[in-house]
Amino acid sequence: MPNTVPESISSPLAVIATLFDEYVQDPAAQPSEFDPANHFKSLFSDDNARNKIPSINNVPVQRLPKNTLVRFRCLVQDPQMGQELFVAAYKKPNDGRVVCTGYTEDLRDTEAGEFDIDDVANHYLGERSVVYCVSPPGETSWAKQRLYGRDISDAMNQLNINEEGEEHKSPLPNKYPLPGAKHTSAAVKFYGSADAVKVGQMVEVIGVLSHPQKIESTEGTAVATDEYTLPTVSYADVPVIHAITHRMLEHANTAPFSSAELNDVSAQAYDIREKLLDYISSAFGGDKLVSEYVLLLLLSRVTGKVSGLKIGQFALNVVNFPVIKPNTEQQSSKKLSPKNVASKLVFELIENLVHHCVGVPLSIELLNGTRFMPKSENENLEAGLLQLTDGTAVILDETAMTEGTLGDLGVRNVQVIQELVTQQSLTYVFPYSNYVFDTDYSILCLSEGKSILPNDCVVPLQSSFTTEELPQLDEQVLDLFRLYIQFARYSEYSIDPKMSDDITESFVQERKAAQQNKSKLPTQEDLMRWMSMARLVALSFGEGKLTKEIYNHARSMDLERTKRLLGGDQEAAK
Asked: 5-249: which CATH topology?
């Protein structure tokens, strides 16, 4: 049954009803097992069609008509809001026709007294999972513009939406990781398997919108009932999306770039690299070595896990970082606002380059007053500050720390950060047990002296702070940098067996020479760092294979870094 894109967006329930009528023509069909997902998947299989669906990421739900099709690009914050038993269909008493009643909070085409809920047959009852989802924490403004801004006028015209309306505000701020940040949230109802999505996953949902219900509630929850539906536990004042179809957002489809755009940048990698290093250095006083390490950080990601050890993680600590207090009138009351002008410049730089970025000023106040790990309270999973999406650049600013005493929560938060830095994992706290979930964040730590955190790599800054603003670049140049980072970060990489043997032999000879000279012997940890850096250096040059020249480049970077460490705080040397 062909349906047009406009019809499926403006009247999805009518389309579903027609699909259901066709489905129940089969005498063996079970109404509770009806699934319209394949039809909508095929209709919205390409980006052009999908982008015609209004996104609640940037259109407040109050401005979208009820029971229309919407999409939501989101983080699964709490996948266990509960299960709902609902009436999936019923038989009309006057003509015996079976009518679909799923994918909405309303029972359509019914009249009071048409059926008694107590008499509904079991095969007319269905079950759906309720999942709380939030817009991606730390999604940067340029990424939002590319993801949602280009097609918003078309989407709004599709449903005759005017420009007026109030901004959406979350009724459950404790379920969003970043305190005080504007965001969108929804209770998404998934039909079928209860394991459709898992906590921390990024998904894009396409489904039917139901407006928030104004229900008197206790502690954020309420029981919603009507004469046709079974009682269900829900959340008051939260919009609901009945998911028809969804897709997991892995690295290939999280970026706001097409595969063609990414492929075009590969031949330009070398030239882009040099220009990008200049841009990064502008936030670090022109220090080219530090800027090169920061570039490697932006290209790093966890590529595997061996015996609990994450392969590819590259937590970077820039020490000797300056502290410049802002003017009184420039200070912000927001918890995550930078307390240091120099740190603010770095935050702005990284935000200009990546899809998701979160700056965390590690002040005593923030550590003692904000929970960094998610915690379940009365079967309600409250968000922690570090419950973020994979691929997020997390900037830990130790220059915000002043004298003071850490309370119990502050100590726990420091432990959580240490686990994140060393193990790329985040603990979720539940009443009777804790669960550890893998993460994949790019972690940059800024500190005046030796960090309180055990980072993978420490590099001292050797420059003075010279500016309070980044150079103004054309948006096309910035897009080229962003494309380059995305391309290089996920490019394929390999090492020839001969190259691997040469590196091993070189390492053995270095240890022998160090032993003869009675100098410090390079360790296995040193070799692992060199190999990790060599991989990132190769990708930064647009190369998929390690060469002797690239390995030597990585070694020269590490040698210069070590000289700086030995010239300063030798205790910090790694």
From this structure: OB fold (Dihydrolipoamide Acetyltransferase, E2P) (2.40.50)
